[in-house]
Design a protein that fits this description.
Layout: E1 6-11, H1 27-40, E2 47-52, E3 64-67, E4 71-73, H2 81-90, H3 103-126, H4 132-138, H5 140-152, H6 155-162, E5 166-167, H7 168-175, H8 179-191, E6 195-198, E7 201-204, H9 206-211, H10 221-224, H11 226-234, H12 237-243, H13 257-282, E8 290-294, H14 300-308, E9 313-318, H15 323-332, E10 339-343, E11 355-361, H16 369-382, E12 383-396, H17 404-416, E13 423-424, H18 425-435, E14 438-443, E15 449-455
Parallel strand pairs: 1-2, 8-9, 8-11, 9-10, 11-12, 12-13
Antiparallel strand pairs: 1-3, 3-4, 5-7, 6-7, 12-15, 14-15
Helix pairs in contact: 7-8, 13-14, 16-18
The structure holds S-adenosylmethionine and FE2/S2 (inorganic) cluster.
FE2/S2 (inorganic) cluster binds at residues 11, 13, 21-22, 54-58, 61, 63.
């Protein structure tokens, strides 16, 4: 079967520091150039580019193989890619100067590399060297902190505003920081792939320019700064594990704009792509008129429901510090007629009556089991006959170890809330049944968060 004329496998196998590898020889630049060139020449229907593990020619990378012929290339650079595409994929003639011609020598090199790699692995193991994955997990905070500090200093925005690449002293002057320390930070950001450095001057790479610069079209910097608050709460994890709860801190509505704005921006960014998918998965029953979005945050879900269902009106129920943010997003979406805000406390207030749909998106994880059982009873009372509750959250396996993102998120709740956590399908099912809901079902969304739906019969 040949769904594509050519299938290109480009090695991007990472290796422990000090070992030769394709990424170490610049395979990422080749992969990017190849994808760009294939798309630019409208060859995407005939050439498929896939990354792959080591091809066994690690010293001569970047390496790639083109199938169905089985043509092996070594030592490519991004500059070779246009010629490769012209010759091999357009003219059907492999680019002779980079093709590995001698099949016996090729096989021998692969076999020898494999034996060396196995011997090195055995030697590392015998010497008790820490496996790379374990070391990476333990020091994962380092890369995170580098990016967080750059965000905290608005470094990416400063580089964008400069208009042309800046040397470290100029960046330090713009940020009012120490020149030596700033240079170390800039170099590390280059190593992490967020900045580029040429002739001693730094500029944003494509990812940083798109997502980390204030005012960029896909600017995520405000929401990502919520991680600066999380950094502080996560530092209390050991204490929280010892004592069962984090050190006391103010309620959400007491935390001020510095906390609320990035928090709601982070929620809004997540919801932008997620909300339409949820709307589609939930659907709205014929004749449904009223939705309550409890802890609705930025209003992104209510907006998406209202946009998809012109007969629906929505109430975004949230804290007094948050509803002005929701009201702004609703106004920007031109939906003030049908999407309203309601100030209240979801931990104790009644929600009114006669709703057709109640949404609890990313709410239950903030609360303890008892609080969730109480919340679901009040939600039940707010729905009319046939009304549905939709919970969106991590829905864990019965042993609470999967999905991985949900197990890690439970720690976020351990350090950030009094009694919150990630709950299993079994727990949600029993709470919903206890509140009076029937037809309880789990809707898998293929990501860390799923839906639990119940109906007031
Ligand atoms: C994790 S966010 C989820 C926001 C939104 N539902 C979403 O999925 O994007 C939790 C929301 O619950 C709100 N919230 C927290 N405690 C609340 C309370 N006691 N009463 C009302 N809303 C509350 C927060 O302000 C925030 O908007
Ligand atoms: S790392 Fe690419 S061939 Fe080994």
């Amino acid at each position: 079967m040949h769904p594509f004329r050519y299938h290109v496998f480009v090695c991007d196998q990472r290796k422990p520091e000090g070992q030769p590898s394709c990424p170490g020889h610049g395979s990422q630049a080749v992969i990017d150039a190849l994808r760009r060139e294939v798309a630019a020449r409208q060859l995407s229907d005939s050439v498929m580019v896939t990354t792959c593990g080591s091809l066994g020619l690690c010293e001569h990378g970047p390496n790639l193989v083109v199938y169905p012929e089985g043509t092996w290339y070594s030592g490519l650079t991004a500059a070779d890619v246009p010629e490769l595409v012209t010759e091999h994929f357009q003219n059907g003639r492999p680019l002779a100067r980079l093709v590995r011609q001698d099949e016996r020598a090729l096989k021998q090199e692969i076999t020898e590399t494999r034996s060396r790699a196995m011997a090195a692995l055995k030697a590392r193991d015998a010497a008790g060297a820490i496996p790379e994955e374990l070391a990476e997990t333990v020091r994962g905070y380092m890369a995170s902190r580098i990016v967080l500090t750059a965000l905290e200093l608005d470094l990416f925005t400063a580089l964008a505003r400069a208009g042309s690449p800046l040397g470290a002293p100029a960046v330090a002057a713009a940020l009012a920081t120490d020149p030596r320390a700033t240079e170390a930070l800039l170099n590390a950001l280059v190593a992490l792939g967020l900045l580029v450095k040429k002739d001693g001057a730094f500029a944003n790479g494509p990812l940083a320019a798109r997502f980390l610069v204030a005012g960029a079209r896909d600017d995520a910097s405000v929401g990502l700064k919520h991680n600066l608050s999380l950094w502080k709460t996560w530092s209390n994890l050991t204490q929280a594990v010892r004592e069962g709860h984090p050190p006391p801190r103010g309620d959400m509505d007491q935390r001020g704009d510095d906390w609320t704005t990035p928090f709601i921006a982070a929620m809004h960014k997540n919801a932008a792509t997620r909300a339409p998918v949820v709307v589609q998965a939930v659907g709205v029953a014929q004749g449904a008129r009223r939705l309550i979005d409890i802890g609705g945050g930025s209003g992104a879900y209510s907006i998406a429901f209202a946009q998809a269902h012109p007969s629906l009106s929505c109430d975004v129920f949230d804290l007094s510090t948050v509803v002005p943010i929701a009201a702004r997003h609703v106004a920007e979406a031109g939906l003030t007629e049908r999407v309203h805000t309601v100030v209240g406390d979801l931990r104790k207030d009644a929600f009114g009556t006669g709703y057709d749909l109640a949404l609890l998106s990313a709410i239950c994880h903030m609360l303890g089991p008892e609080e969730n059982r109480d919340l679901l009873k009040r939600v039940f009372a707010a729905l009319g006959p046939g009304g549905r509750v939709v919970i969106q959250d991590n829905v864990m396996s019965a042993d609470k170890t999967l999905p991985k993102a949900g197990a890690i998120f439970a720690i976020n709740m351990l350090v950030g809330t009094e009694r919150g956590g990630s709950y299993s399908k079994e727990e949600y099912t029993s709470w919903l049944a206890e509140a009076g809901f029937g037809e309880v079902r789990h809707v898998s969304m293929g990501g860390p968060s799923d839906l639990m739906v119940g109906t007031r019969r």
